Amino acid sequence: xxxxxxxxxxxxxxxxxxxxxxxxxxxxxxxLNYKVYIIxxxxxxxxxxxxxxxxxxxxxxxxxxxxxxxxxxxxxxTLGEGDIIIFMDDDAYFIQDNSLDLVLEYFEENxxxxxxxxxxxxxxxxxxxxxxxxxDFQEIGGFIACGCAFRRSTFLNSPGFSKEFHSYAEETDxxxxxxxxxxxxxxxxxxxxxxxxxxxxxTQAWLKRFKYNTVRNDLAIVLTRYPTIYVIPNYIGxxxxxxxxxxxxxxxxxxxxACIFKGAFASxxxxxxxxxxxxxxKQYDYWKSRRI
Length: 292
What we know:
By secondary structure, the chain is of the alpha/beta class. The protein has 2 domains: about 5-195, Alpha-Beta Complex (Spore Coat Polysaccharide Biosynthesis Protein SpsA, Chain A); about 200-290, no CATH class. It has helices at about 15-25, 70-75, 100-110, 130, 150-155, 170-180, 205-225, 230-250, 255-275, 280-290; strands at about 5-10, 35-40, 60, 85-90, 90-95, 115-120, 145-150, 185-195. The protein has an 8-stranded mixed β-sheet, with helices on both faces.
């Protein structure tokens, strides 16, 4: 029998249907010592009315301005006192009713573990464990924040999700910081999450911003976190990779090419705002061999 408390953080932006689904699913959990913090990132949709009234398991906070997922997660982490902090996207939910019990098992039985990432399934894609050939409790070098958990002490001892990224690649950045802190990151294959990720349902304005952030943040991480010897070849290689991917797979090619070049220039400005704190060669090799 577990006694630890769990905080569940869910940033959201104009996704009322997804929030309703998340609330419906989380209420099936058999472990009841949890609290959900739904953080409205200053959207225009009415999210507050969807939160169950007079239910201590739920709290709603609306940000004063659109600040991005990274800021929303950091902010929510200061609101609760749970021993474990779970981060999930608004379009993700647990498959099993005993998922919170399983999450606690990983931490209770392994005191050296500071972080776990869950097994993710998306529409028309297999489980992450099968796609990436990941075993239960395998050490990993990165994660996807649509489903993961931290010991509170581990998260508070880290720099948190960098608010400068707004959205995309904040997971990569904090993963590298955790590795620098000698924290152990493991894959929790038994905790299963369905992530109803469907970019075709997003607006063109959202996709444009996402492409820009993807390139800018990806390259900023190279400039600030990679060992010096790897910066130039990886910076050039990533730009080429983004261009080739757009050419082969994406619609609105001219628009996306413009986003790539704007993002590349912006990465220099962002890297100046971030403190350059690169991994050692040993840490980089560890991260690279285990990243997802």
